[in-house]
Amino acid sequence: MTFETWLAFFAASWLISLSPGAGAVSCMAAGLRYGFARAIANIFGLQMGILLVMAVAAAGLGALLAASTTAFLVIKWVGVGYLVWLGVQQWRSATPVAGTTAHTGNGTRRELFLQGFLVNATNPKGILFMLAVLPQFIDPNRPQLPQYAICAATLFFTDLVVMSAYTVFASRVLRLLRQPRQIRWMNRTFGGLFVAAGALLATFKRAA
């Protein structure tokens, strides 16, 4: 991989990371509900999910997913169901009593890590996207593994920065919204966004 090729992928990685999706919703919801310090676990879970998706695409399993209707539908509906479940949980999350801390919920770091991981790992759209994008930056005449490793590290970095920014933003906005009514509105907004992300994934179809 030449430096120019890597630079092009670096730019593409920022666009991929900045594009709104379930990962951004997950980060803002976690930042809103738990604060930045605890929501870091969700961020790293998202990154592990991305690395798994890239590994699947690099290993050629993405092609199998693209070819198998059954495999595609199973992963797709698992992802849809999980996003809707997250939305319901966020919608129903407890509203703090006036005068108390706005950060609510008892989610452990392990649970938040798993949440982030599953958001990205159960998204067949991400696998098919990587299957389409990654080969454009890989030189077939050079060793494949180092090139995929460079791409993985690059996307890991850009997405880590962007998801951290989403989480910080939500956690700071939360500090300004201390009234129970405001927190309830925010929880329901992000709950609705999770459900909307699930509905959007439900409409996703493989290219013919």
Care to describe what's here?
The chain is mainly α. The protein has one domain (22-202). 77% of the residues lie in helices and 0% in strands. It contains nine helices and no strands. The longest helix has 33 residues, at 144-176. The radius of gyration is 18 Å and the shape is globular. Mean pLDDT is 79; it is low at 96-102.
- Helical residue percent? over 70%
What would you call the structural class?
mainly alpha
Low-confidence runs of at least 5 consecutive residues:
96-102
Main sheet specs: none
Q: What is the tally of helical segments?
A: 9
Total number of domains: 1
Overall pLDDT: 79
Global outline: globular
What proportion of the residues form beta strands (DSSP E)? under 5%
The CA-CA distance between the termini, in Å, is: 30 Å
Sum up the structure in keywords.
208 residues; mainly alpha
In short:
This protein has 208 residues and is mostly helical.
Strands, helices and their partners?
Elements: H1 3-18, H2 22-34, H3 36-58, H4 61-67, H5 69-91, H6 109-121, H7 124-133, H8 144-176, H9 180-202
Helix pairs in contact: 1-8, 2-3, 2-6, 2-8, 2-9, 3-6, 3-7, 3-8, 4-7, 5-9
